[in-house]
């Protein structure tokens, strides 16, 4: 072993206990005292170091999606889509790329139950030969709001009351009563699939619209969808209460145990693509994240499969320190003008610099597996071994060059500066269509959940009427049912 290249790792464990600086510890049971009863001497460096490490064990939890479980595996291309993208990891059927995946709940703390009604995160990090591609999605294909400006307020309303630290419906329904664009998302959240049975039995979606670009520079909008091969299963309320009451980590355990038993979870990846030339033909805006694209007009196209066949070795290193970011794309994949995606592009790496430190991309789970190089250097906790003398660019002493260019969307952007909502809001059609697609029993459970939520005694008559009016605009019979059970008239 080259002593100067040594990095802390359990592969280099010594057979005896040592301090962090490697000095042997001859007694890990008793503090160093004056006599047998004490007091303790400050010079017991090992004791001080041990307590100081313990005192700093926790790092800030994620501001959202704090509760999660991760696993590793691979993504394999099954269908050729090189006519759509020049992404190297999608270059031909059979190509495999290592991945790490983190599933999560959204609102509650790191140790909260996994049986609550809440969206689930579905984040996949592809360690490609052209850098990491993070597909940071959810289990539902749409989102509550379409402009990231509203995200912090939205999260505040969904999180526990800052005074009581209890999540309360009156706060949630007050906030969203100002945002009818949330209706579509609520047809997922208040539906049976609002509590997935576990992480293996749920779908995933990239949610935002991205773009794919092929070698010739042709751009297509794209939406990503994961479908589990073992089917979608959910928990009804009484089942969730029972499971959550006995094991508040049931989904993490299910994932871990399945992989340990060799029953590897698998999802198929599908895409929907749309030529931007036809984006005006729809009654909705295709880059509006509150909308789905009708599958009968824009069919699902198979791309590949995701197999999780390896449990993580260490929860802290491969879950707490794991950092996903929607801005991490690879050549052949680009963003769209989706306003929510544009805000996400900023927010994730920003929070990670705070949560994990400025060199968080050097942490093993986050670092690319491909060779990489730039002149960003130093900063807190920088542990990259470097011995170059030229740390600037360009230089005649260091021949590091630019990479080959790759195509990015060639669209010409024009417009005057403004702060406005998109033109085609169309907030009620897709939620109504979705409600009407439910069986009568499923509709009844949906109605009951709304009646329960809107019965919160702190909700005003005005807020209840607004909600009934929203649902009435989505579907008349749904509006009428809610109006009669809540004894309110829709506010038009
Ligand atoms: C403007 C809107 C949004 C903002 C500002 C935002 C912000 C954040 C932040 C700050 C985190 C914590 C990241 C960390 O500490 O590592 C996070 C996590 C996450 N977000 Fe968002 N988010 C937004 C919308 C969305 C949407 C639409 C989705 C689904 C497509 C989503 C999916 C996730 C997932 C899956 C995680 C957890 C990643 C992990 O497992 O570490 N978020 N988000």
UniProtKB/TrEMBL annotation:
PROSITE patterns with a match to the protein in the record: CATALASE_1, CATALASE_2, CATALASE_3
InterPro entries, sorted: Catalase (IPR018028), Catalase_AS (IPR024708), Catalase_clade1/3 (IPR024711), Catalase_core (IPR011614), Catalase_haem_BS (IPR002226), Catalase_immune_responsive (IPR010582), Catalase_sf (IPR020835)
GO biological process terms, semicolon-separated: hydrogen peroxide catabolic process
Active site annotation, chain numbering: 65, 138
Pfam families per record: Catalase, Catalase-rel
Gene Ontology terms: cellular component: peroxisome
Catalytic activity: 2 H2O2 = O2 + 2 H2O
Keyword Heme: yes
Keyword annotations of the record: Heme, Hydrogen peroxide, Iron, Metal-binding, Oxidoreductase, Peroxidase, Peroxisome
Location(s), subcellular: Peroxisome
Keyword Protease recorded: no
Family indicated by similarity: Belongs to the catalase family.
Name under which the protein is recorded: Catalase
Name of the gene encoding the protein in the UniProt record: CAT1
């Amino acid at each position: 072993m080259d002593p100067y290249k040594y990095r802390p790792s359990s592969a280099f464990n010594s057979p005896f206990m040592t301090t962090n600086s490697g000095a042997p510890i001859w007694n890990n049971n008793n503090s160093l005292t004056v006599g047998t009863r004490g007091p303790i001497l400050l010079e017991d460096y090992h004791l001080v170091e041990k307590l100081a490490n313990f005192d700093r064990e926790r790092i800030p939890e994620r501001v959202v999606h704090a509760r999660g479980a991760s696993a590793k595996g691979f993504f394999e291309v099954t269908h050729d889509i090189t006519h759509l993208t020049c992404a190297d990891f999608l270059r031909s059927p059979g190509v495999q790329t290592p991945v790490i995946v983190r599933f999560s709940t959204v609102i509650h703390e790191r140790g909260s139950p996994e049986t609550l009604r809440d969206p689930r995160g579905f984040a996949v990090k592809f360690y490609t030969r052209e850098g990491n591609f993070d597909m940071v999605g959810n289990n539902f294909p749409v989102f509550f709001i379409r402009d990231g400006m509203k995200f912090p307020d939205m999260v505040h309303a969904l999180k526990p009351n800052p005074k009581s630290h209890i999540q309360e419906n009156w706060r949630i329904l007050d906030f969203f009563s100002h945002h009818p664009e949330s209706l579509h998302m609520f047809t997922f959240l208040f539906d049976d699939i609002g509590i997935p049975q576990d992480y293996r039995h749920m779908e995933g979606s990239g949610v935002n619209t991205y773009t794919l670009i092929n070698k010739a520079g042709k751009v297509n909008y794209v939406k990503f969808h994961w479908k589990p091969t073992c089917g979608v299963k959910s928990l009804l309320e009484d089942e969730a209460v029972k499971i959550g009451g006995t094991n508040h980590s049931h989904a993490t355990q299910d994932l871990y145990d399945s992989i340990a038993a060799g029953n590897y979870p698998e999802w198929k990846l599908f895409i929907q693509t749309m030529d931007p030339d036809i984006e005006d033909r729809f009654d909705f805006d295709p880059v509006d994240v509150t909308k789905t694209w009708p599958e009968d007009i824009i069919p699902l196209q198979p791309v590949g499969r995701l197999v999780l066949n390896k449990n993580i070795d260490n929860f802290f290193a491969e879950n707490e320190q794991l950092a996903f970011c929607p801005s991490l794309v690879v050549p052949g994949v680009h963003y769209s003008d989706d306003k929510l995606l544009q805000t996400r592009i900023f927010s994730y790496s920003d929070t990670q610099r705070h949560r994990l430190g400025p060199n968080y991309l050097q942490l093993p789970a986050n670092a690319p597996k491909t060779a990489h190089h730039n002149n960003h250097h130093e900063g807190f906790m920088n542990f990259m071994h470097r011995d170059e003398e030229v740390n600037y660019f360009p230089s005649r002493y260091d021949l590091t060059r630019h990479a080959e260019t790759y195509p990015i969307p060639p669209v010409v952007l024009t417009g005057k500066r403004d702060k406005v909502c998109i033109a085609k809001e169309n907030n009620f059609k897709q939620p109504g269509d979705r409600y009407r697609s439910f069986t009568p029993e499923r509709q009844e459970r949906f109605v009951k959940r709304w009646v329960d939520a809107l019965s919160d005694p702190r909700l005003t008559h005005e807020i209840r009427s607004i909600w009934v009016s929203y649902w009435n605009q989505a579907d008349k019979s749904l509006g009428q049912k809610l109006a009669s059970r809540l004894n309110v008239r829709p506010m038009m």
